[in-house]
Amino acid sequence: MSVTESDVRRAIAGARTMVVKVGSSSLTQPSGHLDVKKLNSLVAALSAASAQGARVVLVSSGAIAAGFGPLGFESRPSDVATQQAVAAVGQGLLMAQYEAAFGRFGVRVGQILITAEDTIRAVQYRNVQRTLNRLLELGVVPIVNENDSLASNEIRFGDNDRLSALVANLVRADALVLLTDVDGLYTAPPSTPGARRIGFVPNVIDTIGDVQVAGSSSGVGTGGMVTKLDAARVAAVSGIPAVLTSATNTGPALMGDPVGTVFAPVKHRGSSRRLWIGFASDPRGALVADAGAAKAVRGGRASLLAAGVVEVHGEFSAGDPVWIDDEAGAHLARGLAGFDSEEIPQMLGRNTAQLRRFLGDEFAHPVVHRDNLVLV
Ligand SMILES: Nc1ncnc2c1ncn2[C@@H]1O[C@H](COP(=O)(O)OP(=O)(O)O)[C@@H](O)[C@H]1O
Ligand SMILES: N[C@@H](CCC(=O)OP(=O)(O)O)C(=O)O
């Protein structure tokens, strides 16, 4: 039997662990500066959920919004270096507001700043996961943001929508709540005449093609509806129901009332780390597999061995995300490279015994291990 809207709303209302993402546009005044009243009412709604036993992870944007006013800028700066500096100032100011606001309800908060780069690597990934879980066990509300001041331009999320879906996957959340400045997903950008709110999306993968979505129009938000739908898709394929609504609807959305747009999960839970590899990262290069290796990779459980690689493109380090392509140039998979791009040419076409004999033990490994590979 297929999942109905009320099933999804009930699942969200009953969620034990939830990830709530709030965008800059819901925490700011029209001028772009932080709006403490909006922040306080969000915190009141989340504290009520926490008092009822929910474990809440808050993914909050707003560091740049909180920082540019105090530094004397009239509007959100657009160059990356200034944004990163502004975020360093704003993140502290934002946390001070959250600490005070949650403190009034007796709730402790902890700050976690994540870069996409740290978390696609296995060791850091497990560290983030372990810290978040421990904070939740201790009854703390983790407040997550991208580490804007350190994230490198090529591999930053930029918006927090996709980050929130990946965090939901990481903590195995029962619900993802996306809070923004519109009351849901519309059939077209809300200013378009005739645009209507969609209450229920049974399969976000099918819906993405039918809905007209655009980027942010607020001047403070980043990704607009495009990245929110990406987030809903990551949640859906992770088996997590999601709701998208305005921050002013937080209380009703968490109670399962018919507000916003709810997205049904489309799959059972997948492995968390593989989702990071698939969605979180922009490949730095490509490995071209010969016909035999392409067939093995497509089959699902094989590593990519040097013997089946015919070309290497791009510059990357061991641990970076890369495409695995077939000889016709079609993408087969994404994976994390086991070696630097300069090390791979001498390995091409050699089997494990030859790699060991000619290059040493440290080369007798797959170019991409199957645990670090996801089909596309
Ligand atoms: N189909 C659509 N439905 C709803 N909103 C849309 C759509 N297409 C574009 N948008 C825009 O997306 C904006 C929300 O994204 P954004 O400004 O990035 O918010 P946030 O700061 O919360 O991430 C809305 O204000 C709206 O103008
Ligand atoms: N990490 C940035 C978030 C950037 C941003 O605007 O994100 P969003 O409002 O979620 O589209 C910040 O804290 O300012």
TrEMBL record:
Q: Which reaction does it catalyse?
A: L-glutamate + ATP = L-glutamyl 5-phosphate + ADP
Q: Does the keyword ATP-binding apply?
A: yes
**Where is the secretion signal located?**
none
| Domain of life the protein comes from | Bacteria
User: Which residues make up the binding site for ATP?
Assistant: 21, 180-181, 222-228
Q: Which GO terms describe its biological process?
A: L-proline biosynthetic process
Annotated metabolic or biological route of this protein: Amino-acid biosynthesis; L-proline biosynthesis; L-glutamate 5-semialdehyde from L-glutamate: step 1/2
Select a single GO molecular function from the record's annotations and give it: ATP binding
Q: Which SMART domains match?
A: PUA
Sorted alphabetically, the Gene Ontology cellular component annotations on this record are: cytosol
Entry's Gene3D superfamilies? Acetylglutamate kinase-like, PUA domain
Q: What class of enzyme is it?
A: transferase
Which keywords describe this protein according to UniProt? Amino-acid biosynthesis, ATP-binding, Cytoplasm, Kinase, Nucleotide-binding, Proline biosynthesis, Transferase
Which protein family is it in? Belongs to the glutamate 5-kinase family.
Question: What PANTHER family is this protein classified in?
Answer: GLUTAMATE 5-KINASE, ISOPENTENYL PHOSPHATE KINASE
NCBIfam families for this protein: proB
**Name of the featured protein:** Glutamate 5-kinase
Organism of this sequence: Bifidobacterium bifidum
